[in-house]
Amino acid sequence: MFIAGFPAGAWGTNCYLVAPAAGEECVIVDPGHQAAAGVEEAVREHGLKPVAVVLTHGHIDHVASVVPVCGARGIPAWIHPEDRYMLADPEKALGRALGAQLMGELTVGEPDDVRTLTDGSVLELAGLRLTVDHAPGHTGGSVTFRTPAAPELPPVLFSGDLLFAGSVGRSDLPGGDPDALLRSLARVCLPLQDETVVLSGHGPQTTIGRERASNPYLLQVAGATSAEPGAPRRGL
């Protein structure tokens, strides 16, 4: 499997292009704020052909470029139905104070073809198999995408803003729920193999094993500690 990733925009949101190999069809994960140019550069450099966009959630820092990216190639975008409203109304998703700061510089809306993600479904796109897990807490419609292990390659989790290296996503914006986030960590992340590579919405990559051993939020939901987690929550 081939993965090209880069941080984009004001929030350094990670956008990923995923393909069976360089020179083949690919899926774009989370083309966020100012990501369109980076997508085009990666497509040219690696000879990729995008066939779909998949979105871990609807916050503007993850979806701001979905309309130009999808429109330039006539490809669909996949999002959980609970977050679809954010494509056209990001201010409602962020709260008026934060949203009002952004609306003057962003053009928002839905691409022509929007499709629905459901918990446990498997997307077969670009020769890939992506398992969808609904993981509410950061937003009501947050999801993760898992790829299976392959010969000599570990499984990969695109965790969005559910799980970061050393931390988790914030849950204090509209649609966030701190208790639901902890339940999602327990249900989605804890059962995964230690060697699973975690590619988050922000920051560096990590592994489930590393986070299981040291992330205070995973330690909490695993019952390894009763202390309140000390690591700050991240994301928009």
From TrEMBL:
It comes from Streptacidiphilus cavernicola. This is MBL fold metallo-hydrolase. The keyword Cell wall biogenesis/degradation does not apply. Signal peptide: none annotated. Residues 12-202 form the Metallo-beta-lactamase domain. Keywords: Hydrolase, Metal-binding, Zinc. It holds the Pfam family Lactamase_B. InterPro entries: MBL_Glyoxalase_II (IPR051453), Metallo-B-lactamas (IPR001279), RibonucZ/Hydroxyglut_hydro (IPR036866). SMART domains: Lactamase_B. It comes from the Bacteria. The keyword Zinc applies. Its cofactor is Zn(2+).
